[in-house]
Specification:
Blueprint (H helix, E strand, L loop, with lengths): L1 E9 L3 H8 L12 E7 L7 E8 L2 E13 L3 E6 L4 E10 L12 E10 L16 H28 L8 E5 L4
Antiparallel strand pairs: 1-7, 1-8, 2-3, 3-4, 4-5, 5-6, 6-7
Length: 176
Amino acid sequence: MDTVEVSTVVYLPTAEIYEFLVDFPRYAKYSKYLDEVRRDGDGTPGTNYDLVFAWWKLSYTARSEVTDLDPPSRIDWQLVKDIDARGHWRIEPEPESAPEGESDASRVVLRIEFAPESADSGAVDLPAFVSIDWVISKVKPKIKAEAERIVERIVADLEGQQRDVELEIHESPDSV
């Protein structure tokens, strides 16, 4: 499995961040390539989300499912078709990172695990002479960049203003 994990500190309590993150359909406004999110369910485990992506000449609808919720600290999900992928949002209290005069700070972590080799080559209608391996090689770095962009934009929305966000990025293998 390849892994991308992005984390940063948000100057709010964990419960407030959790309530914001569990509202998954709003993610479309944070992503450059995610055009729409459709929900089937009430947001609890078993809820499915169709994620409509568009990039280059390709469009693709991924279906994810909420697999577990542990309020206010964790939201687990997995993709349920075409590629083996899963991940979670994790929110951990980190009051020692609060700015002077403030008491609330939490570390927010977005972790994505995926197996590129499990991608169903028939899932995307590819142009002539374009292989699924080529598409995967181009998409892998975009996953990292999107994770960064989403976390930065969520922090701005949560805190009510944009600021320089220090992101910690961990990835494996090193070629992601």
